[in-house]
Amino acid sequence: MFKRLAMLTAAITAAAGLLMATNNASAAPSFRVLAFYNGTWDAAHIDFVKEARVWFPATAAQNGFEWESTSDWSRMNSLSAYQVVMFLDDLPPAAYRGAFQNYMQNGGAWMGFHVSAFNTDPNQWSWYHNTFLGTGAFRNNTWGPTAETLKTEKRDHPSTLRLPATFQSSVSEWYSWTRDLRQNTSIDILASIDTSSFPVGTDPNQTWYSGYYPIIWTNRAYKMLYANFGHNAMNYSTNTRLSSTFDSEVQNRWLIDGLLWLGGGTAPSPTPSPTTPSSWVNVVNKGSGKCVDARAAGTANGTVIQQYTCNNGYAQQFQLQATSGGYARVNNRNNSSRVWDVTGVSTSDNAGIQLWTYGGGNNQQWLAVSEGGGYYHFVNRHSGKCLDVPGASTANSVQLVQYTCNGTAAQSFRYVSQP
To answer: How far apart are CA 181 and CA 213, in angstroms?
Structure first.
């Protein structure tokens, strides 16, 4: 009896060990990132580092990779366990630059931010500033920090597949360079300042009024991404944060997809709608409990899209019909050729939503992004902004608008299927 019990115990222990091993294997990170920082100069850069050391670990956990940070630059000499290296607003001391160059030239991957490209003499590390980044020397910067409309320049790169044609950045100070990256055949500019953003800056003496300014780029000779942002707005007298580098949902989408590409992971596909092209749904706002509605059951071009008490009428029934890249046109049941449309092809906050004949425009396409719990927010393909109930109103007949995505209930919707 004791022998059988011992055998049974051994079997249970082995099974438990196998289950634990399986669980551990399934939980293993797909790749590892090591981020370097100093965090010792300029309150705005220090604050970005503090914020990054909270945001990136949480994002890594959600996306199946591991993120670690260190201020010990000597670890640059032992990078074999890491698939991606990150520079948070700094670059390595001279003693460790050779190790980084060797890492990159032997297949490593890198993401850098803002100050990681700053220099006044590129020849102090010519490979990095002139060849790898392609910038030459720092030329000037804008002031104060501002959020700007960015233009997606290359939409077939793995990091930009889910970006709209233009999108709102987070707040940052912006740098320019002595070299024109457009003349470098190794550089792919992924995003730049959109001309609609000018003037850029609030100090007349440090404002850009025109020109071409790359913000995100890659060097095809290496697996790398550089982002010009990484400077929070600050109240320097109180050392208080006034903005967040991570408050742009679309910019964050690029960060995630960029890291997944660098690490060899797979970028997440846009979350599909639970509906099919043949199904009709009410779209109900989380904050007000009211339905998205075509005013007065209109079908003419320019009919206002509003919220109204749910009544199951065809004016409140919509169909998500796939276009491309996870985006969809949103048809109205009274006339399925009429869709949600951002008026004036605008990229501005508070631009109204209307019905208009579908013509394939990016301002007529929406990405339904799952929030969990059956709720979604709708991101416009052209502006990168979210469908929104202005002022979080609960009143009938309030026209819906697009607004910078902010995660509030005014931008959260659920579907109710209709026969």
So the answer is: 9
* pLDDT score of 415: 92
Residue 166: which residues within 8 A CB-CB, separation 6 or more? 149, 150, 151, 152, 194, 196, 347, 382, 383, 384
CATH of residue 166: 3.40.50.880
Residue 5 scores a pLDDT above 50: no
Q: Is there a single domain that holds both residue 255 and residue 294?
A: no
Q: Return d(Cα 307, Cα 282) in angstroms, integer.
A: 11
Whether 7 shows a pLDDT value over 70: the answer reads no
Q: Is residue 310 part of a domain?
A: yes
| Cα(166)–Cα(363) distance, integer angstroms | 11
Q: Sort strands 234-235 and 240-241 into parallel, antiparallel or unpaired.
A: antiparallel
In angstroms, the Cα distances linking 392 to 31, 145, 248, 366 are 41, 28, 19, 21
DSSP 3-state percent helix, strand, coil across the chain (nearest 5): 30, 30, 40
Cα–Cα distance list, 225 to 254, 257, 258, 290 (Å): 11, 11, 7, 43
Q: Measured in whole angstroms, how far is the alpha carbon of residue 122 from the centre of its chain?
A: 30
Residue 40 banded pLDDT, cuts 50, 70, 90: confident
Q: Which domain holds residue 391?
A: 280-418
- Dihedral over alpha carbons 166, 167, 168, 169 (to 10 degrees): -100
State the residue for tokens 């209109």.
Answer: 298
In angstroms, the Cα distances linking 255 to 7, 111, 276, 416 are 52, 9, 30, 33
Place of tokens 């639970």: 274
CA atoms within 13 A on the CB side of 181: 27
pLDDT of the residue at 27? 57
Structural tokens at position 349: 């906050």
What DSSP state is assigned to residue 172?
B
Q: How far is CA 82 from CA 54, 85, 86, 250, in A?
A: 20, 7, 10, 27
Same domain, 346 and 214: no
Q: What is the pLDDT of residues 94-119, one digit of tens each?
A: 999 999 999 999 999 999 999 999 99
pLDDT in tens, 116-143: 999 999 999 999 999 999 999 999 999 9
| In a domain? residue 2 | no
